[in-house]
Amino acid sequence: MRLKPEEVAAIKEAAAETFGETAVVRLFGSRVDDSERGGDIDLHIEVDDVADEGRARGKFEDRLFQQIDPQKVDVVLTIRGGTPRGFERIAYRDGIVL
Predict the structure, then answer these.
(1) How far is Cα 50 from Cα 8, in angstroms, rounded to an integer?
(2) CB-based burial label for 41 (10 Å; 0-12, 13-18, 19+)
(3) What digits encode the pLDDT tens for the residues 17-43?
């Protein structure tokens, strides 16, 4: 996994503050593979519910970038209990829970 320990801690903290303590965060995509280079941070966040997805994403990124340098982060939000679609299936299959 190509994330620094402080980046992992910041991601987990920002997710808990934004989506609640029950949020599950998975890293997926190129950052999972130690042999790769570069790439954005692909995150899958499983939550109980979210009233305004766009606002929640912005709040999450604001909190995250208060702790780490701003960079390209893609967030896939999943409401717990729903049927996984597209990237959600990839994240469940290949992702690493942070």
Answers:
(1) 22
(2) buried
(3) 999 999 999 999 988 987 777 789 999
